[in-house]
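Researcher: Good morning. I'm working through a list of sequences from a screen, and I'd like to move beyond sequence-only analysis. For each chain I'm collecting a predicted structure so we can compare shapes side by side. This is the next one on the list. No need for commentary yet; just the structure.
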Amino acid sequence: MSYAAVFPLVRTRAFAEAFDYEVPAHLAAAAQAGALVAAPLGARTVIGVVLEIRDASGHEGRVLPLHDVLRVPPVPPGLLDLARRVERHYLSSFAAALTLVCPPVGALKVDRRYELTEAGAAAVAAGEEALGALGGVRLPAGPLPPEHERYRRRGWLRVAYRARVVGVAAPDRALRRGSETPARLGPRQRSALTLVEQAGSIGERELRAAAGLSAAGLRRLLAEGALVSADPAPGAGDDEAGTSAPSTPVDGGHGAEAPIPLPDATACAAVADMPDLLDEQRRALRCVLCDARPGDEVLLHGVTGSGKTEVYLQAAQQVLEAGRSVLLLVPEIGLTGQTVARVRRRFTGIPVAVLHSGLSARERVLAYAAIARGEVRIVVGARSAVFAPLADLGLIVVDEEHDTSYKQESEPAYDARTVARWRAAADGAVVILGSATPSVESYDRVALHADLRQRVDGTRPPALEVVDMRAHHGLFSDPLREALTGVVDAGEKAILFINRRGIASYLVCEHCGHAWECPRCDVTLTLFGGRTLRCRTCGHREPAPSACPICGRSDLVRHGYGTERVEREVRLLLPGVDLLRLDSDVAGSYARLQQVLTRFREPGPKVLVGTQMIAKGHHFPDVTLVGVVNADLTLRFPDFRAEERTHSLLVQVGGRSGRGERPGRVIVQTLDPEARPIALAAAGEDERFYAEELARRRELGYPPAGFLVGLDLSSLSRDKLEAAGCFTAERLAARLGDHAQVLGPGPLWRERGRHTCRLVMKTNEAGKTLDTLREWLAADRDRYAARGVRVVPDVEPQWL
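Model: Good morning. Structure tokens for this chain:
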């Protein structure tokens, strides 16, 4: 008799440990570590994952048997180990870490079905016709009918449990571009055709979601020959989550056979013969394929437009030809579309899976199954794709690696860049960290650097033209106003960057000084659209006032400005111009985001106003002007990374200009042109910036010279939180001793009705500090919760 340690995957309750279940003899071959099972839990049947198989149970009472092993590809053992590592390093619960590596069970429903045994099949052959009609029939809730129970007792019939994906429709069609182009097309139909042309072939549901295309609009494109059907996308039409028999689970490639070694001598020899590569690209590719050993990182430090993506794809091609799989990470879902299009064009006929938060749970579980079954060897996705169950992973690409979006804010607050290193070390893969502005930590940590100092056309990115706004009044300086007018008159495109949304940052009564604040958060309300005040933290909204509620006067003054105000100023300057805005208010969904990007790429003069969403890796060859409306917003942020972020944003957003045949300009407006990150970005002295920033970090003990752990305490009661913050700081300082410094508690702030404060531990001994905090959380976290105080750890925080 064997026993399975099963961890229930339920969202309504967090369990601290696995439960023991007896493994029936007929399930012994299928019940392996990583298998998903149907198990009784109280009066319910739940889905759980087997952590290990034991010869004996430590439970003293009755041990219930498993109901069944689900026909879902199992979680690879290496990913179970990864979940345990996430739990320990990020001070998370195992339940939270386990959800990262398992398929989303919210899209799975377990049904009871009749299944004939071998004896039952023989009985049907012998003439038991009524029994044969029961095979595969779905059972209602409740006990079995008497005649069916009789079959079960004879050993002819068993109750099987099957997982099906909720809401699956007919198999998804893969669509490709047809030979016809209708004379009249709506904007969403044009967007759909552009996406298909970029991707080569794309699934019907993915296309409709990305372009916002209606069913009627799609039918018209198909009827007029603009689109034609290709083969179904892999795994798209499966009713069950997986078709692999439970006795033959898909091996995730972790801990099985030794991985194919990298670098490969054949791939190294092929680098010299690869056409259409610049010498710098060839050297970078050689660094990845020849110099890097299994588990190594390579920092691909290339200016914007230098062909980093081509290096990724050439390296991916060599890895795929060696029989291994490839993972490409992008910081936000807005970049997945163009990345997937390039990958599909390059690797025609090879299935590519896309993983990001914009997918439904049903779409994610189908993609998980296709990847785990080995049908897909290339995955493109955002942060969570780092946990994709790829077998024999040979290459991980982290594009725009400097981006803080790779760090999850909710628990478990993992960093996908760190997890990528762990996976590479376990699988013998190589990690490429690509960026025009690498994070200071990566720049210092990674030994192998490959530099791309010029664009693919042999030019350098345009220099930043810094404008001192102390000599100008209004949103736009004279140089930016003249340049913007000239670009539009010439039929070209421009981007205006302002890292703030709305019309005005806040409203103030000029007579009495009253400012409108959120009733649930300690922040002022932002004016949106001229009619609504909204909290950028919790979403609270109220109508914009016409008079002050304190003094009754109507002398209301708007302070600060955001994307909507810039949009309004552009309309006044350039009436009738094709103007688009891209911020989180406009791009609330993946489909709307793709609509804006597709429309901006269309020919003709256009102006795009946006936040940092436009600064991340987008390729717009017709853009010849980038204007940074206010470079000081990130510079004055109270964080030790503020200068790094300012330098990175200026270089990144400036890199959107001049990527085509015509040269570009970048105009940066600031009140402090002598500020170090602005001056060095304008001078193109990146190496000097990193050297000075590293020296400053070492002097202050901040990463990479030190290790930080944040601890957020929150409560509905301000008094409780103040007492808890001071008490916690004293207790942790005593526990940590000399190997860590406890900073805080910092000032209290209110967010979504909860008062919050933060403690920060700064240390050079990360292991000891994490061990101490883990023990303290295990002992005291529930006590805090019982007193109304929530404790949330944040290991290696990106924001202070």
